TrEMBL record:
<feature type="domain" description="Aminotransferase class I/classII large">
    <location>
        <begin position="33"/>
        <end position="393"/>
    </location>
</feature>
<keyword id="KW-0663">Pyridoxal phosphate</keyword>
<dbReference type="InterPro" id="IPR015422">
    <property type="entry name" value="PyrdxlP-dep_Trfase_small"/>
</dbReference>
<dbReference type="Pfam" id="PF00155">
    <property type="entry name" value="Aminotran_1_2"/>
</dbReference>
<keyword id="KW-0808">Transferase</keyword>
<comment type="similarity">
    <text>Belongs to the class-I pyridoxal-phosphate-dependent aminotransferase family.</text>
</comment>
<keyword id="KW-0032">Aminotransferase</keyword>
<dbReference type="InterPro" id="IPR004839">
    <property type="entry name" value="Aminotransferase_I/II_large"/>
</dbReference>
<protein>
    <recommendedName>
        <fullName>alanine transaminase</fullName>
        <ecNumber>2.6.1.2</ecNumber>
    </recommendedName>
</protein>
<dbReference type="InterPro" id="IPR015424">
    <property type="entry name" value="PyrdxlP-dep_Trfase"/>
</dbReference>
<dbReference type="InterPro" id="IPR015421">
    <property type="entry name" value="PyrdxlP-dep_Trfase_major"/>
</dbReference>
<dbReference type="GO" id="GO:0008483">
    <property type="term" value="F:transaminase activity"/>
</dbReference>
<dbReference type="InterPro" id="IPR051926">
    <property type="entry name" value="Ala_Aminotransferase"/>
</dbReference>
Length: 404
């Protein structure tokens, strides 16, 4: 009787689906679960830089009213200046929108764009909010392959072969969740070239732009798109500044703005309709981008994130039947289960079995719009002790699980 909308028929967000619900039910019964499922730094002992929290608290008395629906000017200026230092010179404050995390801005910008039948190219595997948001907006997600054989680089032939007259844009997640790949300048240039030739928008999700390992070069897409390819860049404070709970993100739009007038008005209309993003969190943006705090120490090999990534990489590859590329960025490893060894046909069931037997929570690969039941994602935020313990338990579990 109280049914949900049919718009939700193809909308999936399984990272927070039945496996997590089962874990919560087990916790309620008193079990301790080792959680390697969500990229949320704070519960793993990562604290936000003190200056950001301090500044936000200080701003509370003056943050009581609604702001401009795009966001407070000081925050948008901070975003423009920040990107200036990263080589994006054609951005101005009217084209910056502050949001309740990148999540809100992803759904908002797709809602403003898609008509039924419009197709958006989304990577497989992806961060599933993208596929879900395209579907929710009435568009059709078309998946292009990121290829494990090339350490998860986008397969550009596959990408281009999926373009039709209905294609409107390409989503590029770099550094990538769930694979941890960071794309080379050359690859990004080729994607821009494809977008230019076919008149497509690029949606560049760069929320992990500051979390890279081994001195890999991180190139912001909008440094390559220039004035002739419309580029929507998304980033925020959830990961690099460890304040996912504050909900602070931004969208920066560059390129042929006069040709995108109608689309920009659509984005502004939807921004107006939700009044504005949480204003105290908007103040954190200037404090973060204008301040001296940095994540650089954490990502060094001897830093916490670097050491955890190394341990996860070695540990996973030491398990018989498991292999994983070392991530160059982000907070995850997307590990492969050997299909010649295991008889796994339902990877959600695999994650549930692992949870029930060993009290470890991972996300199954098909939750990331990966087409085969042969991967899982592990979050590298837990301490080396917890990661080590989890990987040992995983090895023990797999040594007796559904062998062929
Ligand atoms: N984009 C990617 C690739 C993510 O991994 C996440 C969160 O995990 C988000 C966007 C959403 O981030 P936010 O906390 O800013 O909404």
């Amino acid at each position: 009787m109280y049914r949900q909308s049919s718009k939700l028929a193809n909308v999936l967000y399984d990272i927070r689906g039945p496996v997590l619900e089962e874990a919560e039910a087990m916790e309620a019964k008193g079990h301790t679960i080792l959680k390697l499922n969500i990229g949320n730094p704070a519960p793993f002992g990562f604290e936000a830089p003190e200056a950001i929290v301090h500044d936000m608290v200080k701003q509370l008395p003056v943050a009581q009213g609604y702001s401009d629906s795009r966001g407070i000017l000081s925050g948008r200026r901070a975003v423009v200046q920040y990107y200036e230092t990263r080589g994006i010179h054609n951005l101005d404050t009217p084209e910056v929108f502050l949001g309740n995390g990148v999540s809100e801005l992803i759904t908002l910008s797709l809602q403003a764009l898609c008509n039924p039948g419009d197709e958006i190219l989304v990577p497989s595997p992806d961060y599933p909010l993208w596929t879900a948001s395209v579907a929710l907006s009435g568009g059709t997600p078309k998946h292009y392959l990121c290829d494990e054989a090339t350490a998860w680089q986008p397969d550009l032939e596959d990408l281009e072969s999926k373009i039709t007259e209905n294609t409107r844009g390409i989503v590029v997640i770099n550094p990538n969740n769930p694979t941890g790949a960071v794309y080379s300048r050359e690859t990004l240039k080729k994607i821009v070239d494809i977008a230019r030739r076919h008149g497509l928008i690029i949606f560049a999700d760069e929320i992990y732009e500051k979390i890279t390992y081994d001195d890999v070069e991180m190139v912001n897409m909008a440094t390559l798109t220039g004035d002739d390819v419309l580029c929507l860049t998304y980033s925020g404070l959830s990961k690099a500044y460890r304040i996912a709970g504050y909900r602070a993100g931004w969208l920066a739009i560059t390129g042929p703005l006069s040709e995108a007038k109608s689309y920009l008005e659509g984005i502004k209309l939807l921004a107006n309709m939700r009044m504005c993003a949480n204003v105290p969190a908007q103040h954190a943006i200037q404090a973060a981008l204008g301040g001296k705090q940095s994540i650089d120490d954490l990502v060094l090999p001897q830093g916490r994130l670097g050491a955890q990534m190394n341990l996860a990489h070695e540990g996973l590859n030491s398990i018989d039947g498991v292999s994983a590329h070392r991530a160059s960025g982000a907070l995850y490893m997307f590990a492969k289960l050997d299909v010649d060894k295991f008889d796994i046909v339902d990877d959600e069931q695999f994650a549930l079995d692992l949870l029930r037997e060993q009290k470890i929570l991972v996300s199954h690969g098909t939750a990331f719009n990966w087409s085969r039941p042969d991967h899982f994602r592990l979050v590298t935020l837990p301490s080396v002790e917890v990661l080590d313990e989890s990987i040992n338990r995983l090895g023990e579990f797999l040594s007796g699980y559904k062998q062929k």
